[in-house]
Design goal:
This protein is mostly helical and about 200 residues long. The protein has eight helices and no strands. The radius of gyration is 18 Å and the shape is globular. It has one domain: Alpha Horseshoe (Serine Threonine Protein Phosphatase 5, Tetratricopeptide repeat). Helix 1 runs antiparallel to helix 2 and helix 6 crosses helix 8. The structure holds zinc ion. The site of zinc ion has 8 residues, from loops. Zinc ion binds next to loops.
């Protein structure tokens, strides 16, 4: 299991710099992908890395995992060469289209596809070197991160502020819709657990 300490070891050499150069940023992204492209990581790792991943970097990570026959979701340890494989699409235009059911060869389950998309939606499209606000390379667990995992939402975790629940349910509904469209079959709703009245 990949831990925050492993991530910290990768990041430490870059910590002394006030701002990352484009070259350093791309090296760092490459090293993070290398660290996470096999096996599974702790939830804390994904939360903490949300400030260092751009959408593109995360997509590259998912692709590397799939090439290695790992479920694309970094929290998952499933390796299944029969089911998970990289489909080589020679036509770059076709490759950009989301073909029906394409996610099934990249993830072990529909929920992991949704978890991965849910996470990706919260990432910044900007490359890390272009961000002036983020060179906070501290990965020690803080009181809270601003990124939530699908698992946090489904567990109704205290990390997720109550007032975000409606927006999050909406994101989940959109993801469910995209799965339905991709597979052509209706699936069970993913619903956030009702909060027990006694806890309120
Ligand atoms: Zn999985």
């Amino acid at each position: 299991m990949i831990t925050l300490q492993d991530v910290d070891a990768v990041i430490t050499p870059y910590k002394s710099q006030p701002m990352l150069s484009p070259g350093d940023a791309s090296n760092l992204s490459y090293k993070l992908i290398e660290l996470l492209m096999e096996g599974s990581c702790e939830r804390e790792v994904l939360r903490a890395l949300s400030s260092l991943f751009s959408t593109d970097t995360y997509e590259q990570l998912v692709q590397e995992r799939v090439i290695n026959h790992h479920c694309g979701y970094p929290l998952c340890g499933v390796v299944d060469p029969q089911k998970i494989y990289h489909k080589v699409q020679k036509n770059p235009l076709v490759a950009k289209l989301k073909l029906p059911g394409a996610y099934k060869t990249s993830y072990c389950t529909q929920q992991h596809y949704q978890g991965s998309e849910f996470y990706k939606k919260q990432l910044s499209p900007e490359a890390i070197w272009a961000r002036t606000d983020v060179v906070n390379l501290d990965v020690n667990p803080k009181d809270q991160y601003y990124t939530f995992l699908l698992e946090d939402v489904l567990d109704n975790s205290d990390r997720v502020p109550r007032n975000s629940m409606d927006t999050l349910q909406q994101s989940l509904d959109e993801l469910r819709l995209s799965v339905t469209q991709q597979s052509g079959v209706d699936h069970n709703d993913i619903k956030i657990k009702e909060h027990d009245a006694s806890e309120l």
